[in-house]
């Protein structure tokens, strides 16, 4: 089923005789397998309002992300949260949609400085599990009336409602970018360097480390963005902070963009065998967590606050974290792994009860992606 209008979508859900598997562009096969009739949002497509001067765009949920980014690019603007493209990592095809990005709260390396997709949401329209059309938020940031369903829907994976339209804040695209590359640091030293850079006054917009880079050696990456003169100055000052290490500065805009797309899309783990886990943690815990994981491959983002880990199929990453904890999600796994292991981080009992209550309110019949986020 592929409704062309919000009203048609509402009618389909209101008349449901069984569960639905909600699908946008079909690029993110994450979560427990869902059994149900496929309900696609791709028919709800198009930019309904774009006001560059107000830094606001309103988009139907099934709109291809690439089309929206192209429209923003033409006005020298961008989505600040740098959404990841999951296709290479998951081996999927299809076209990423704006609704899918919002439903999964997809955010990339710039989150460490700019914030997540959730932080740039202004408003939503969606159809809940009863077929009711719901609107919340608006087109400005100062919107405090009622319940904040905008934040609630962002990252709900289609389990509370099917998004039909989203309003987003956008930001100007910077004139220039540079990347400081520090070679051959250990994980502990890399996390220390990234923390030092992020605490500096030089406005770092990306801080990542990979133990095995393209040349087979560790590399730590620090990104600077802004006006050309400012970028040159700040990159030089930041490089000077690490003058006791082997430091390079990349100023070529195309190479900088390519390098950070490599981090954003977790390219080191594309085309590999095994399960891929995404672990959020305190950056200071990252070195010890890395040792405990004993992973086949690792990539550190967000200054060490995000660890991507490649583990043998069927391995439960959470069992290796010990007392250090962390918030772990199985992003890529076989059907057997996804069926046997909790894909999303299990919630404490009080929070799980609250979550169940919210789902019962928005989807009392349990027809929207049932079981997708179950432990």
UniProtKB/TrEMBL annotation:
Keyword annotations: FAD, Flavoprotein
Protein's UniProt keywords contain Flavoprotein: yes
Record flagged with keyword Flavoprotein: yes
Stretches assigned to the FAD-binding PCMH-type domain: 1-173
Gene Ontology MF terms in the entry: catalytic activity; FAD binding
A Pfam short name: FAD_binding_4
Highest taxon of source: Bacteria
Protein name in the entry: FAD-binding protein
Organism placement in taxonomy: Bacteria, Pseudomonadati, Pseudomonadota, Alphaproteobacteria, Rhodobacterales
